[in-house]
Structure to design on (142 residues):
């Protein structure tokens, strides 16, 4: 089970959900950008501890230029996403912000096909459409 991508995807979803709930409570009396900085320090510390305990550090010289470039771009995208997410949580309901944030699922499907040459079946596209529809329904305030 621990070697299954599905297992780790579900674990990711659980922690992403907890992130939204914990963040919504945590940013109540703090600037959302400063809260993102604190969160980032916690993540850096936890990852350093994890890499040390598991012995997974590797030499920086073993990383290719292409890998460096795309990890830096990914880090910048992550930072921008976190800043926007925390700002949205600060002013909106977690139950509406998180689903809209998950439009990233729809965008990843589209970007994966356009930029990575991935293929999705008709049933996969139906799932993408249903996710988009669900996001719209969850974001409505009636």
């Amino acid at each position: 089970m621990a070697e299954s991508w599905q297992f780790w995807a579900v674990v990711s979803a659980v922690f992403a959900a907890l992130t939204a709930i914990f963040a919504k409570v945590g940013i109540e009396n703090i600037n959302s950008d400063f809260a993102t900085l604190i969160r980032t320090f916690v993540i850096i510390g936890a990852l350093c501890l994890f890499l040390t305990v598991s012995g997974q550090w590797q030499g920086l010289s073993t990383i290719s230029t292409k890998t460096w470039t795309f990890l830096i771009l990914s880090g910048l995208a992550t930072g921008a996403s976190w800043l926007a997410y925390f700002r949205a949580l600060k002013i909106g309901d977690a139950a509406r912000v998180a689903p809209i944030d998950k439009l990233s699922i729809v965008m990843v499907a589209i970007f994966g096909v356009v930029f990575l040459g991935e293929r999705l079946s008709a049933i996969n596209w139906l799932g993408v459409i249903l996710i988009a529809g669900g996001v719209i329904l969850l974001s409505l305030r009636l």
Notes: The longest helix spans residues 65-91. The radius of gyration is 18 Å. The chain is about 80% helix and 0% strand. The helical segments are 5-26, 32-54, 65-91, 94-101, 103-116, 122-139.
